[in-house]
Amino acid sequence: MLSKKTKYAFHALTFLGKVGNKKPALIQDISEAYGISHKFLENILLELKKAGILGSKKGKGGGYYLIKDPKDVALSKIIRLLDGPIALVPCVSINYYEPCIECKDEATCGLNKVMIKVRDEMLNVLENKTLADILEKE
Amino acid sequence: MLSKKTKYAFHALTFLGKVGNKKPALIQDISEAYGISHKFLENILLELKKAGILGSKKGKGGGYYLIKDPKDVALSKIIRLLDGPIALVPCVSINYYEPCIECKDEATCGLNKVMIKVRDEMLNVLENKTLADILEKE
DNA sequence: ACAAATCCTATAAAAAAGATAGGGTTTGTG
DNA sequence: CACAAACCCTATCTTTTTTATAGGATTTGT
User: Fold this and answer.
1) CB burial of residue B132 (10 Å; 0-12, 13-18, 19+)
2) Which of A32, A66, B61, B97 is the most buried (most CB within 10 A)?
3) Could you tell me the residue ranges of all domains in chain A?
């Protein structure tokens, strides 16, 4: 399951996508819209900013806004940023690869093989669906 | 990612599948084969037994053995048993459904829609691939 | 000058996962 | 029968991860 962090990120991005046009929205407004703790959301938005997805403006009239075109923000990007690997086992992760400690030989591991298949099917959706697809359906 | 519990379950099932023919194998032997703690694995095998996937025999010459035909053990079954939901958000889980607290209206939630798609693609693999597929590739 | 708002980092609290402990029960064998 | 082998069961402990909070620093508009 996705962490709350990631889910909240998606909701916040959706909120900002609806506001649109680089108009800054307040953390406050987003957190109230979804009943998310202000401070928790603050950390999340900051990460999204550092990743180049959001921009921000300080002081009165400030807030966060979407920098990227929603159709250029793949779901996979957000998940990887906040949750880490998408794959179900580390030994088939593309971005967070690690050998499985209990596995002596990856080449002859049957689990490895089927998990590659699962990963590919997940990525097929998550890399191709974007924030724009979420917005379109709201 | 899958928990270690689930990964270990897959490895243990593979081990037992290779032994085959309802010949009981010792916890000890499985745990040594993969470097898994004996006691931790014991709990896992017990759960698999309670779920009707494994059988066991006590006393000398005892152990655990596969009750089911490997091709009747879908990967999804093992994951759900030990890890819970396969879906990435609770509001699209088939077996562990829960509404998302931050979501006011599921019907108009864009995230919900794309996550149904992800879930279906995952299930398409996980319901159709079985222990037999893992065994075949080892 | 002041207030509004983000920025930053640290820490606390809660939950989940991983691991261990230890006695109970069943069963084969001499 | 006695005994040892092996699973059965449930509780607890430890570690890690996740979730949440705290509090001051910095920037900016009026």
Assistant:
1) middle
2) A66
3) 4-66, 70-137
